Amino acid sequence: MLSALLHDDPHSVGPYRLLARLGSGGMGTVYLARTAGGRTVAVKVLHQRLASDAVLRTRFRLESDAARVMGGRYGAGVVDADPSAPRPWLATEYVLGPPLDDAVRAAGPLPEPAVRVLGAALAEGLGRLHGSEVVHRDLKPSNVMVTTSGPKIIDFGVAHAVGEERLTHAGGALGTPAFMSPEQAADLEHGAAGDVFALAGVLVFAASGHGPFGSGQATDLLYRVRYAEPDLGGVPPALVPVLIRCLDKDPARRPTTAELAAALAEGSGGRRPADVLPDAVLREISRRAEGVWREPPHRLPPPPPDMLPHTVQAGPAMSRRRLFAVTAGAVVAGAGVTGGGVWAWLANQDGRDGGGGTDHANVSKQAKPPARLWTFTIRIPADHADVLSVGSGLAMPAGIVLCGVNAESGVLTWQANIADTWRYAPGGKTLYALRDADEGGSAALCEIDPTDGSLGEPLAELKDFAGDEARNQVLCVAEKTAYLVARAASASNWYVCAVDLSDGRVRWRTPIEAPQDENRPPMLCGSVVGDRLVLYRSDSGLSFLRLAVHGISDGKQHWTLSEPYDGAPPDRVVHDERHLYFGAAALKAVRITDGETAWRFGDLRDVGDSAGETRLYGAPVLHDGVLYAAEGDRGIVAVDAATGTVNWLEKNLKGRHLNRDAPPAVGDKYVYSLDDKGLRAVDLRTHRAVWTLATDASVLTADHDRDRLYVRREKETFALPLD
Amino acid sequence: MEGLRQDDPARIGEFVTLARLDAESARHGVPERRFLARSSDGARTVVVSLPLPGTDPGRWAAEAQWAGRLTQPGFWPVTQLGGSAAFPWHATPYRPLLPLTAVLAAHGGPLPEATVRAIGAALAETLASAHVLGLVHGGISPASVLLTAHGPLLSCFGATRSLAPEGLPRAGLPGLEPGCLAPEAATGGPVDAAGDVHALGAVLAYLATGHTVPERNEVPAGLRPLIAACLSRDPAGRPAPARLLGELAPGAAYGTLTAGTEPLSLPGRVVAALSEQAAWVLAAELPAEVR
């Protein structure tokens, strides 16, 4: 529960002397701290690097206000706060109890009396919040702390006043899909009745061990929240009627918090929380009550000087220590640092625990993975998961939305309701998207506002193309021209077309084969290369990649090619002005002018243990005229892009299974690559791996403007310095 | 735990008192005065003990010195001795704890048999390891056993010896729980290992019934023969602590009960009382004028 302070953590915050770390998240770090009079509190401090962000300061202030409204009976009592300090802070009581998800994990589903007592108290607590015109908006098991005096609702990071203008328009689908209200999932106003819906979900979880809409992909969850009947399997029958009413899709038909509290209190016989909690939960409470009095661990020493280049860029909140991972299913938890309890947080970033003074002697000669600059907790989609630079920030697809993220802090700034990754594409630092298919009418292309994610007025209305076709696709935007694939309004014919964004007119269109899949667009990806438009397409079940190259001035097809291709098909066109590059059975360069093979690399090479697997070469990345790709399980190979001759091979890599579907990323000092042990940095001079960061990441994106490496894994995206 | 009274010391050594550990109503039978206190810089919170008024501070301090040398698990450690010959005190870092009298008050009556066995077995193990070394506690009573989340700890080491010199009758002395005093010790006889077993039996009876001298049929049947044997008038008839341990927790490995790192299973209201005490102490703040 308590972990050591880092060498660069402050010694005090406001009137509090810091004792230990409790956790850290996107917005801030929570410390155990003590006053000169010996009062012990939990202090949440906004990250230094975010403290100058006016929006986040405002959000922090609102969170402090909401926590005060909640009070100490149903929440973590606020002791003091200074939202206008250079680094804003909020001090609350240190809550002695586990979050409800941990409690259920430890004890299994709670017995009916416990659910009734907890539920009635939570309903009363919400009633109190709503009575002050505040909605919580992110009620979920991890935001409910279970204590012997009753449950406490924490983390008001996304709470807001009823009817208040949404802060930075990040409102939308903020929250956790498994416990969202249908109105929240639909991006409508989530009011008091929405909190009632979420509370019922929390109680279903407490009573049965699963949420009413299960778990899984955010996309599926949001759909089920909006349209599916809740699953109350395992919930005691006597609780079902009242919970079903709370889970009504129509907010107007749900009971009020007072009605819910009364219905739950019925039959609980006025029992105290301490009387109904299972033994395993009581022991968790004991553990915390006792643990906070133990001597806190010593502050960690600064790293030895030769490690500094890797750590100086780390924010003070970024710990190399093992903290706790955010629980499953969060679409967005970038803002979610709890106030009184703990429990958040950064997933373990390199698999190392501790890292105190003891092992420095052994490791000081070896470079270590750098600390994360930020972590954004979010579920990533299965494909096209690249991080894009948009305006002054970043955009990344997440679940069924597109998220705008502050590049400095990793904090969510907006969400756009764009479910399908093929419906938007960047042109420079601008993002363009097709108007939502649900709106019907004709297809239209709009610009996404980089500050709030909203779609602007259409730049082009394409009346000849069907607006309600979900598989319509934006391939790319170059030189004020957008290249789209769309179905004709009047027939089932499909076209690739070029749209001039300065006047909104279709410059040309060329018929193409209709997509074979009901749910997938026709093309994998497309890109302008010189005066050509390159299209990649792959038909399900066939291990061929089909290339088509058109002229950008008239759409005329110049050549096509079917290329044998194993493994995950490419989601980007790797090219320079002369060649297209692939990595599969071999590394290969294809001439853009005529589709002829310029060179092949890898035939007859011994690539080590991975014989038998058909994809021997990984998806490549091109950097400064050199093509980098994983070669078998042997390591990175660097090949001259012009000639196909080898520049260097990675040395001394053994016992790894290399990820050949995710292209490597290249910085000034290292090439980064994924394997079954994690993220590996290979020194460009010595050609040896210098460190491995344990992670199951699946996507790497290098951001050369900001010198950042974005690493995406199933439920989070984090940033490292790109060296 | 209870608020301070007017005649309570505001300061003990470097510590500022925050609260009494023992409620006034449960004060009878507590062989020392115990306070929750905090160093004036706010950094250390402790439990401080003082001798009862009217008793011999020298003998009390001598027993406290012995207790300070004990490193057995299961004993409440005495980590700091201070004061003067006339006004001695000792202190130990705070952790959430309840005298057994407060445990029964919190629970609202006698404890379930499983809890009695768990607490009793841990105490028996502590005594067994102490007796092997020739140490006799000589002060076991409901108030001297401090229950923490991880199990019971024996405090008030040597209370029987400190309250009256050997040879003098001890019956009726303030600070001694009459039911815990073995017949031979009550009349001024030596305080020995068999006396500790008698006292442990009385504590078990207290946990199971609310009285140290229970009516026979009050005691749950499963514990009756055991408690009766401990309370036997004949010291030779009382079981050795190791045997008690075996009967209270059949199959438990010796040495595992008092060194446990996992919280004990305790009734909800007892956990609530420990947790509320911890929360109160966490939130307590020394007034600015005493710092």
From TrEMBL, chain A:
SUPFAM superfamilies: Protein kinase-like (PK-like), Quinoprotein alcohol dehydrogenase-like
Matches recorded under SMART domains: PQQ, S_TKc
Residues holding ATP: K44
Keyword Nucleotide-binding attributed: yes
Cross-referenced CDD domains: STKc_PknB_like
Keyword ATP-binding: yes
PROSITE patterns in UniProt: PROTEIN_KINASE_ATP, PROTEIN_KINASE_DOM, PROTEIN_KINASE_ST
Keywords: ATP-binding, Kinase, Nucleotide-binding, Transferase
Domain Protein kinase as annotated: residue spans: 16-264
InterPro entries reported for this sequence: Kinase-like_dom_sf, PQQ_b-propeller_rpt, PQQ_rpt_dom, Prot_kinase_dom, Protein_kinase_ATP_BS, Quinoprotein_ADH-like_sf, Ser/Thr_kinase_AS, WD40/YVTN_repeat-like_dom_sf
Name assigned to this protein: PQQ-binding-like beta-propeller repeat protein
TrEMBL record, chain B:
Gene Ontology molecular function, alphabetical: protein serine/threonine kinase activity
InterPro entries: Kinase-like_dom_sf, Prot_kinase_dom
SMART domains cross-referenced by the UniProt entry: S_TKc (SM00220)
Segments forming domain Protein kinase: 15-249
Keywords, ordered alphabetically: ATP-binding, Kinase, Nucleotide-binding, Serine/threonine-protein kinase, Transferase
SUPFAM superfamilies listed in its UniProt record: Protein kinase-like (PK-like)
Name of this protein: Serine/threonine protein kinase
